[in-house]
Design a protein that fits this description.
446 residues, alpha+beta, Alpha-D-Glucose-1,6-Bisphosphate, Chain A, domain 4, 8 helices, 38% strand
Length: 446
């Protein structure tokens, strides 16, 4: 069928390889944080988890499977022919051939055959595949597994692709920031984590961190089920996830004033403090506030990306989410230096950013990584090493020996063929003759 031949073709494999390489380069160059409508739509900021990249891997996997299945009958047929070729009669046409005359000291053909088999099988690890008592023909083989080298390599690539697709579909990477002593939800998990303690050590007379350690506890159903330390390059593993130390810093604490809108005027109600990432109930109101982000030096670039130019409080801005008990929510930016800018619209309150407090506690920044499927990739890597080793360092070798009586002497014909490393096999062929020479006096003619 045409479609089957197309999907099993080498041309499609080369095309898919080129596309995968180009996509991998794009995925490496484009940063994940880039906020552009076209890039987001094409998933170019997260290529390795995109649907189209997984589709390329799946197509390449199907292509390799079909190529392997297409060549499998040829491989099986070649192995069958290998056994049938044992009955080859004209050994002189083989690439390696020698005719040996055994003097009249030995005239017992079975004894000669037994000694030869001992020399070849025990000393050179050949296997006797076929023997004929009628014409005294013995056929040996070694390294038949080398014929499977390319097949194992194909299978290993398929396994790696399956692992990569698994990682792309179910694997993920998230960043969480946990204030010291507080809990945080874990994305895509049914448990929480708590940063029991955080400690940072600096090099003497500098502010360069030498080591920072997070003591993290895993909370399930309100109970602590596991506690461990996280250091740089020493992650904590739990529930198929890895928690890696990413960064640390001080928690920003901001002050706000809230008032009630009455007849076009604002009547002050109270002031409150809130930490970045914290959710609190605003005193004397029915509202909740979450400080989503704090930017000490707020700016917007030409593409509409929001960031902070520096860590200095030159243009402080806070991004909050306000909600009530009915589930109504509103998000807004508030500026310390420009309180007259856009304020709350959905509620009859006025919120004002009034203070920045000195930092009082650390937060620990953790990368949460789920790499389900990575073990499949490691299995594929092991198989590809095995396949390449078998392909490059083993060779299928065939050896024929025929013993012919000739008056008062015996004529022994030795023929052989090697599919790889023929120059190296020439030395082995001579060593086979020398191994046999240990058992009787031979007149070897080259």
């Amino acid at each position: 069928m045409r479609w089957l031949n197309f999907f099993a073709s080498g041309k499609l494999a080369i095309l898919l390889l080129i596309l995968i390489v180009v996509a991998s380069i794009v995925g490496t160059i484009i940063p994940k944080e880039l906020n552009n409508a076209i890039i987001l739509r094409l998933q170019l900021n997260d290529v390795y988890h995109s649907n189209w990249f997984n589709a390329l891997l799946l197509l390449f996997c199907i292509n390799l499977c079909l190529c392997s299945l297409k060549n499998l009958p040829v491989l099986i047929q070649s192995l069958k022919l290998s056994i049938r070729s044992a009955e080859r009669t004209d050994l002189s046409q083989l690439p390696y051939y020698n005719r040996i005359n055994i003097k009249d000291k030995f005239t017992n053909a079975p004894l000669i055959a037994s000694l030869m088999k001992k020399a070849i099988i025990r000393r050179h690890f050949y296997k006797l595949v076929y023997s004929s008592s009628n014409d005294k023909l013995y056929y040996f083989e070694r390294g038949r597994i080398s014929r499977f080298g390319y097949m194992i390599t194909h299978i290993s690539v398929i396994v790696i692709l399956v692992g990569a697709i698994t990682v792309g579909l179910v694997g993920y990477k998230h960043y969480i920031k946990i204030p010291e002593g507080e809990m945080s939800d874990v994305p895509n998990a049914d448990f929480k984590v708590r940063a029991d303690d955080f400690d940072v050590q600096f090099y003497p007379d500098t502010y360069t961190p030498k080591e920072y350690i997070t003591v993290l506890s895993v909370i399930e159903n309100g109970k602590t089920v596991f506690t461990g330390n996280i250091k740089v390059n020493h992650p904590l593993k739990y529930g198929g996830m890895k928690f890696l130390q990413s960064d640390y810093g001080f928690i920003d604490t901001l002050g706000f004033r809230i008032g009630k809108k009455v007849n076009g005027k604002v009547e002050p109600i109270t002031e409150f403090k809130i930490d970045e990432g914290e959710t609190i109930e605003i005193p004397k109101t029915d509202l909740k506030a979450t400080l989503m982000t704090y930017m000490p030096d707020f700016f917007i670039d030409e593409r509409g990306n929001i960031g902070s130019r520096s860590d200095e409080a030159r243009n402080p801005a806070a991004f909050l989410e306000i909600s009530d008990k009915k589930g109504k929510k509103e998000q807004l930016w508030l500026f310390l230096r420009f309180p007259e800018l856009k304020n709350i619209q959905k509620f009859d309150y006025f919120l004002e950013f009034v203070a920045i407090y000195p930092p009082s506690k650390y937060y620990t920044g953790l990368q949460v990584i789920s790499d389900k499927g990575i073990s499949i990739i490691w299995v594929g890597c092991f198989l590809i090493v095995c396949g390449l080793f078998i392909s490059f360092y083993t060779s299928h070798k065939k050896l024929w020996i025929r013993i012919l009586p000739n008056n008062e002497e015996m004529i022994v014909e030795i023929g052989a063929i090697s599919y790889k490393d023929r120059s190296g096999f020439e030395k082995e062929f001579k060593s086979l003759e020398k191994a046999c020479a240990k058992y009787w006096k031979l007149d070897i003619r080259y």
